[in-house]
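Design a sequence for this backbone.
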């Protein structure tokens, strides 16, 4: 028997929403119970992907498969009420109506309570699927009413194979680098691949002054502030910019010991020349500075101020070794 509420948990971009779609297709596929439906790994029929129901679900036009997504980063009570109203009506055609509440952790308390009522008195013939990074991100009363299914991050190797399959022209070395940067998230990997991560990386390390031997005389607080300003202008990209920067710094740290383990394999020359003028302690401080900024931004800190502080602190760290030399 299929439970009436499911919770799919796992990091962003791991495939929770795609799995919800596949699940809705498997329940409603018109040929799943005939010869066309081949049983999947767990004995559940796989959807054919070709029948009317499968196609409608896949392009989002099926009237009985309802998805609610956050607006401006938040799920609001009117969205949950609207969902409740549509579920009060009879299904149009589906054998199993499916309602997906995506990123359920973004619900404010009012929306959460409205959803809780729905879970306490589930609308007939409907399966609710909630998605969230972790069950603990939801009200315990909500999480406890759902059957929990956890999605584990993909390993870098699997992710690189997936990338090469999706993007035929991608070379193995490039796919491996992107897979490392994406940290198990398929969506993040595809986004990096599509936005040309190489250009993004080259831009970030150049703007940070980490693509050439460090010369403290060439640096200044004004330059650091300019770097922060450039980063801040890129709003939506700041998250990946900082991630890329951290990976670069990590590569610089391990370069003298494990050169074969670096992620940025295509920039070995730059790594070698920068590393010659910077020591391990400086690199650890740099990494921690970027990490700290990332955490502050994730906690909804003031982005511009956080980036200013980060850039100035980085500048300080660069100056350290040169200062020691002149003493
Ligand atoms: Zn089908």
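Sequence:
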């Amino acid at each position: 028997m299929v439970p009436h509420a499911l919770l799919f948990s796992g990091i962003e971009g791991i495939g929770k929403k795609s799995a919800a779609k596949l699940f809705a297709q498997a329940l409603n596929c018109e040929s799943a119970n005939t010869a066309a439906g081949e049983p999947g790994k767990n004995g559940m029929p796989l959807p054919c992907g070709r029948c009317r129901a499968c196609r409608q679900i896949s392009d989002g036009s099926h009237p009985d498969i309802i998805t609610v997504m956050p607006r401006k980063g938040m799920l609001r009570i009117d969205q949950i009420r609207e969902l409740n109203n549509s579920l009060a009506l009879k299904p149009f055609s589906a054998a199993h109506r499916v309602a997906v509440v995506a990123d359920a952790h973004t619900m404010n308390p009012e929306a959460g309570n409205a959803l809780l009522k729905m879970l306490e008195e589930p609308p007939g013939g409907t399966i609710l699927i909630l998605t969230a990074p972790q069950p603990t991100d939801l009200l315990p009363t909500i999480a406890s009413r759902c059957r929990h299914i956890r999605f584990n991050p993909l390993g870098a190797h699997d992710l690189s194979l997936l990338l090469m399959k999706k993007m035929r022209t991608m070379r193995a070395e490039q796919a491996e680098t992107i897979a490392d940067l994406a940290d198990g998230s398929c969506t993040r990997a595809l986004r990096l691949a599509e936005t040309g991560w190489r250009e993004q990386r080259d831009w970030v390390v150049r703007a940070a002054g980490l693509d050439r031997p460090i010369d403290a005389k060439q640096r200044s607080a004004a330059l650091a502030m300019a770097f922060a300003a450039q980063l801040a202008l890129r709003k939506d990209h700041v998250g990946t910019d900082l991630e890329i920067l951290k990976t670069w710094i990590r590569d610089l740290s391990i370069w003298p010991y494990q050169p074969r383990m670096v992620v940025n394999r295509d920039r070995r020359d730059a790594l070698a020349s920068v590393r010659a003028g910077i020591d391990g302690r400086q690199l650890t401080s740099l990494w921690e500075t970027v990490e700290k900024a990332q955490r502050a931004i994730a906690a909804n800190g003031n982005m511009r101020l956080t980036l200013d502080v980060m850039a100035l602190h980085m500048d300080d760290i660069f100056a350290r070794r040169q200062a020691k030399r002149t003493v």
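Strands lie at 5-9, 65-68, 97-101, 126-132, 147-150.
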